[in-house]
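Worked example 3 (structure in, sequence out).
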């Protein structure tokens, strides 16, 4: 109703938290649609491209594979019983009644219960995704991995543009203020399990054979998870210093750190901290995700295996050993688009869609 009233020339969805049904509405109304992906929730029922057993997904979408992933990921007894019931004819009948009853429906959904078997839910979901993706005027994604991921749903290659997130141009000089300081590692972002912050502390605990470093943790830290980490590591982790900084100005952080660290435990979609680090010419210690390694080449990244404390320890150790090179700022970093350049790319996509739609309207007349 809103779209029909506003009648936009183009509808561009920057996907957040399941609003992709808006694309369906726009497509039903004949409005050209553009989609920018931030996470993988449109196509992955777990949203994070991590298998139910905790391993990283390869991004290949198949109903049987994804259904098994969903079932494996429901680790609580109630979830497993729900999935088992949904596989039987009698169970489906009972669950359907609970789902459709005015008395129990709200509680049913609040508990995360389902009435259809995993394979059926997955097939329905993936067919819906395929219809929406193929109906897009254009898809914008920040990585080549994202392009391959969405192309498997049938969208033409020329309709997918790889466009990493932008950042304003930054003038950066070698940080003289770091010369007498401890080697500084900075985490910037939400302090949550999917960001892998606990892995940093576990990795540093193992590193007593390197000079002491300073770990700064900056970002949202009000969660129980963050409180537990702060309680365990208030000022030190082994021989290494720790500073909990809460929300802090990004510019000051990136001008006074040797490296940033992004040990994500999900398919982090070219996070903004990565883009900001590249713009400020700050090397990154990161999980070797296909969504990040495209930018972390030629000495700008120190890569660790997915969810591996041992590998992360090695990556940190390698960065510390390169302290002189890092502080010299001699490393060549990939160029990051400015917001103006990014906007110009989007403008070109919009203009192409409007020309195409104008031609279509003329033919229809």
């Amino acid at each position: 109703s809103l779209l029909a009233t506003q009648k936009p020339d183009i509808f561009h969805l920057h996907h957040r938290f399941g609003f992709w049904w808006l694309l369906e509405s726009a497509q039903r109304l004949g409005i050209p649609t553009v989609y920018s992906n931030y996470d993988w929730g449109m196509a992955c029922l777990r949203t994070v491209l991590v298998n139910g057993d905790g391993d990283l997904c390869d991004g290949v979408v198949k109903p049987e594979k994804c259904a098994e992933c969903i079932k494996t990921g429901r680790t609580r007894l109630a979830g497993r019983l729900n999935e088992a019931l949904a596989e039987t004819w009698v169970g489906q009948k009972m669950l359907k009644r609970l789902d459709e009853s005015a008395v129990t429906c709200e509680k049913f959904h609040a508990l995360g219960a389902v009435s259809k078997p995993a394979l059926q839910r997955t097939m329905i979901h993936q067919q819906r995704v395929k219809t929406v993706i193929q109906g897009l005027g254009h898809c914008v994604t920040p990585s080549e991995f994202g392009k391959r991921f969405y192309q498997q749903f049938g969208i033409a290659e020329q309709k997918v543009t790889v466009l990493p997130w932008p950042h304003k141009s930054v003038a950066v000089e070698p940080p003289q203020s770091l010369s007498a300081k401890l080697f500084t590692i900075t985490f910037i972002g939400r302090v949550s399990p999917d960001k892998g912050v606990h892995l940093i502390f576990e990795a540093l605990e193992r590193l007593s054979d390197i000079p002491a470093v300073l770990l700064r943790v900056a970002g949202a830290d009000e969660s129980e998870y963050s409180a537990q980490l702060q309680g365990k590591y208030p000022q030190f982790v082994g021989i290494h210093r720790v500073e909990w900084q809460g929300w802090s100005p990004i510019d000051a952080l990136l001008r006074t750190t040797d490296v940033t660290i992004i040990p994500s435990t999900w398919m982090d979609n070219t996070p903004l901290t990565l883009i900001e680090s590249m713009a400020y010419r700050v090397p990154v210690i990161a999980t070797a995700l296909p969504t990040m390694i495209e930018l972390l080449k030629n000495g700008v990244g120190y890569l660790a295996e997915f969810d591996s404390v041992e590998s992360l320890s090695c990556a940190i150790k390698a960065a510390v050993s390169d302290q002189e090179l890092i502080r010299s700022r001699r490393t060549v970093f990939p160029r990051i688009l400015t917001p103006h350049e990014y906007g110009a790319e989007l403008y070109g996509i919009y203009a192409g869609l409007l020309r195409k739609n104008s031609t279509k309207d003329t033919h229809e007349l």
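Notes: The mean pLDDT is 93. The longest strand covers residues 240-246.
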